[in-house]
Amino acid sequence: MWLAVTREISPALARCELTHLTRQPIDVEHAKEQHREYERQLVEAGCRVERISSGPDMPDSVFVEDAAVVFDALALVTRPGAPSRRAETAAVTEALREYRDIRTIEPPGTMDGGDVLVVGRRVFVGRSSRTNDAAIDQTRRLLAPHGYTVDAVDVSDCLHLKTAVTALADDLLLMNPMWLPSEPFAAFDRIEVDPGEPMAANALKIGGRVIYPASFPRTLERIERHGLPVRVVEVGELQKAEGAVTCCSLVFRIP
Ligand code: CIR
Question: Coil, helix or strand for 6?
């Protein structure tokens, strides 16, 4: 079965990190409602949801994807690029320890899980304002014995690699070609986001189903035209914090 690790929304969400967005007021109660509906969709998709608690000292902790990347053989706990987010990894490590051997990104490496796209045995890592070469090299060394290849991809126009590309299937990517070089992804089929919806490349695939934000109707149409079953969620308050749908969970197989 699937396990989805999520994390409670911090009462301090409004003090989140912002890189490419202008700060807007965030209604934390509304964000919590949207997050609960997101978790309900995870359950509908076949996941058991395990929610970690949070606190006022971790504004961004709901974006649990950034604290770890879970593979079949191990969980890689990151060292988040924003110093304000480094404390998030302790509780995530404890939650994952029961299911996977833990490996960690060590200084001077920094990495956000939002920069790591895993498609089958291919791992693409965004070289971004959050993730550096030291972390990419560590990841390559840790994963090589398990048969994964690791490719670095430069990301400068958006926060994370997965802001610009996610996988809808093992051979199909959803991407914004304006924010990425196309060469690393040449082997894959692709759906491009509608040009008027640049933030629309972040979709969460679980099994054969896709969880997708309600705010990108034209790209949604493109995904549905491919015959993929999509469940739409309202995540507007989390989007104001520069979050999307992959970032609010760590989804992986458990026995
Ligand atoms: C941050 O800047 O770290 C948070 N405000 C947003 C992180 C979103 N993470 C993700 O998409 N993986």
Answer: strand
Nearest CA to ligand 1 atom 1: 17
| CA–centroid distance, residue 23 to ligand 1 (Å) | 14
How far apart, in whole angstroms, are the C-alpha atoms of residue 175 and residue 166? 7
Within a 10 A sphere around the Cβ of 219, how many other Cβ atoms?
25
57 Cα–ligand 1 center, Å: 16
Say yes or no: CB of residue 243 within 6 Å of ligand 1: yes
Structure tokens at 76: 């890689």
Contact predicate 10/62, CB 8 Å: yes
| Binding site membership of 232 for ligand 1 (Cβ less than 6 Å) | no
Instruction: Determine the pLDDT at residue 55.
Output: 84
Quick check: 112 and 81 in contact, CB under 8 A? yes
C-alpha–C-alpha distance, residues 60 and 56, integer Å: 10
Q: Is the pLDDT of residue 15 over 90?
A: yes
